[in-house]
Write a structure and sequence with these properties.
Tetracycline Repressor, domain 2; 10 helices; Arc Repressor Mutant, subunit A; mainly alpha; globular; two-stranded antiparallel sheet; 75% helix; 227 residues
């Protein structure tokens, strides 16, 4: 029977291996994109057989979830720093927080891809492919980011600058819609009609998307139309 010290050492080695795999996954996502990332590539980067990855993770979906956790931990720090700025009004603070979210998404497009991939999965399907422990870690990371946004909204509601509303729903909506809009910034293209029935393409910049999302967040918070 293994002694407690041996069990502790084995657990430490397992955690270290998991961190190696997750770090390699994150690096591959950032360098090559999510769609091109393969389990064999991750295993090769760590110097292990792909079978070892499946001893630690249920599959690629679980790696997605825990890679998103890594991004969200960084994003949380960015949002907290933005909320702590010496803004003149709560509206300015909300703009800073949403702007920090957009800036992070523009800097790390793989975060947007990972997050959207997971959001497209029905709940029961995710539970089949991702362990409860991994989903708990992902949920905790998302809620930690949303907390900063919710607290900013609550502050504005309390001061009368924002309309009285469900700040949890508003924060979740801003997060989900923000991820969608960030895809526009990544593609850099808009579709419109040059004349009825005739489609044409125009360009959109990351800065335009940033301005749109911050204006939209303020409009949602205040109940007034975006200028």
């Amino acid at each position: 029977m293994a002694t407690p010290s041996r069990q502790s050492a084995a657990a430490a080695r397992r955690r270290a291996r998991e961190q190696q795999i997750l770090a390699a996954t994150r690096q591959l996502f950032d360098e090559s994109g999510v769609r091109d990332a393969q389990i064999d590539d991750i295993a090769r980067a760590v110097g292990i057989n792909r079978a070892i990855i499946y001893r630690h993770f249920s599959g690629k979906e679980e790696l997605f979830a825990l890679a998103v956790e890594s991004y969200l931990e960084e994003l949380k720090s960015r949002l907290e720093a933005a909320a702590a700025t010496d803004a003149a009004t709560t509206t300015d603070r909300l703009r800073a927080v949403v702007g920090a979210f957009v800036d992070y998404g523009l800097e790390y497009p793989a975060f947007v891809d990972c997050a959207q991939t997971l959001m497209r999965r029905p709940g029961p399907e995710l539970l089949e492919q991702v362990s409860e422990g991994a989903l708990f870690r992902l949920g905790r990371a998302i809620s930690a980011c949303l907390r900063t946004l919710k607290e900013t909204l609550d502050e504005g509601i309390a001061s009368g600058q924002f309309k009285d509303q469900d700040s949890v729903l508003a924060a979740n909506y801003m997060y989900a819609s923000g991820l969608g809009a960030l895809q526009l910034a990544r593609i850099g293209l808009l579709v419109k009609e040059s004349s009825p029935g005739i489609p044409t393409i125009s360009h959109v910049s990351g800065e335009q998307v940033r301005e749109f999302l911050t204006d939209t967040a303020v409009a949602l918070a205040t109940g007034r139309s975006a200028a």
